[in-house]
Amino acid sequence: MDSSLTVNFNGQLYTAIYNAQTGYYEVELNAPETGGIYTADIDYTDFMGNFFEDSQVIQIFAKEPVKFLSDRVFMWIFDKKTFNLKDIVELSYFDINIDEETNANTIIDILKKTSAAAKDIVVIKRNNENIFWGIVDNIQNTDGQILYEFTLKYLTNLFNQNIILKNEELIKTTGIEDFIAKCIDDNFINNTDTFVNLDFLEIVVKSHTKKQISVSNVNNGIFNLHTFMTNCTQDYDIVYSFEISNKKLQITIEVKDLNKELIDVNLQPISNYSEVFETDFVSKVIVLTETDPYTLYLLNDRTTTTDMNNPNRVEGKTEVTYTTNFEDAEQTALNIMKGNSYNHNITFEYNDRLIPVGTPIAIKTKESLIYDTYISAIRITQDKFIEYTCGNIRVDFINKLLKERSN
Hints:
By secondary structure, the protein is mainly β. It folds into 5 domains: about 5-60, no CATH class; about 75-160, Beta Barrel (Thrombin, subunit H); about 160-255, Phage tail protein beta-alpha-beta fold (3-Layer(bab) Sandwich), CATH 3.55.50; about 260-280 and about 340-405, Phage tail base-plate attachment protein, domain D1/D2 (Phage tail proteins - horseshoe like beta roll fold); about 280-340, no CATH class. The protein has 5 helices and 29 strands. It has helices at about 170-175, 175-190, 225-235, 330-340, 395-405, and strands at about 5-10, 10-15, 15-20, 25, 35-45, 50-60, 75-80, 85-90, 95-100, 105-110, 120-125, 130-140, 150-155, 160-165, 200-205, 220, 220-225, 240-245, 250-255, 260-265, 270-280, 280-290, 295-300, 305, 315-320, 345-350, 360-365, 370-380, 385-390. Strands 7, 8, 9, 10, 11, 12, 13, 20, 21, 26, 27, 28 and 29 form a 13-stranded mixed beta sheet that branches. A 4-stranded antiparallel beta sheet has the order 2-1-5-6, with no helix packed on it. It has a 4-stranded mixed beta sheet with strand order 24-23-22-25, with helices on one face. The longest helix has 14 residues, at about 175-190. The protein is extended, with a radius of gyration of 30 Å. It starts with a strand and ends with a helix. About 20% of the residues are buried.
């Protein structure tokens, strides 16, 4: 009986060949495309018929694809109604801002006249990577010069429109994402007024986040869809991504399961790191009513009192407000004090690395403190460094206050 050796690796079965010169069994394995740690299961039967099993760990190193990098940045311009491609132009200057919290402008310069118009859709690419999706806000040309300055808004401004509140129950029964998708579909894709429909839009919902909430920015049954979408990004981690699929602009709505990034400002290629602290808060609220005024004071143990002479009062701002009924005054005051927070904003620049908005990060500061936060804004210019802003790192301001007093 001849001996035999087989290897099961990455789902494939291989038969090893015995090399009499070396005294070893040899086999050529097909390496997987993805690098990592793999296990090879080995079965051996000797000439006496004895059976042996073993396993060996094999590490696969994947070769990084070669990237041909260029400093040239281009913008694709699509018609706002048909989504037909109007033009592809090179940018001579760009200051790209992806910041839905402030709805910041993106400014670009083009040394060419195009057929672009307000509300047209654009995508800016660098090294064939999409770095910005937006809509044209306005185009300015001074004294007939060849330079045209474009002001762009982030693409979610496509839905910057007041609409009638309907189907609000979807938030609780199906998901916030489904409610937003329904609003877009009813008002921008399948509107009964077919003239306003954007037939090139396609909405994909990949997650379903049920919340026992109502739409907050409603006035007389009307709300701004873009404002609500932005609020959902800040409060519930709802993100919007864009791609062209089958000649349609596909918008994906989801809570993305993004891996947390570790940012160490002491070790990684980071520059212009800065921290901004805000300790502004309300410690006294006067509520005027139809009858008597009501005053509430904040104490350093996070409780409140109506006793003006309490020795544990906290120093801070005084807020004056109004409610009709005296019985509602206490809750009105408490609502104002609940808004108190100690805000801590961090900005930094990272060398030529694009981290998407909404990515959770753990940032290790120069003092070796670690904060859990997220990327809330990005600024991209001709500089190799990309500027990032972290969302507010909110720490209970009373704890901060007590710590400062103990020092």
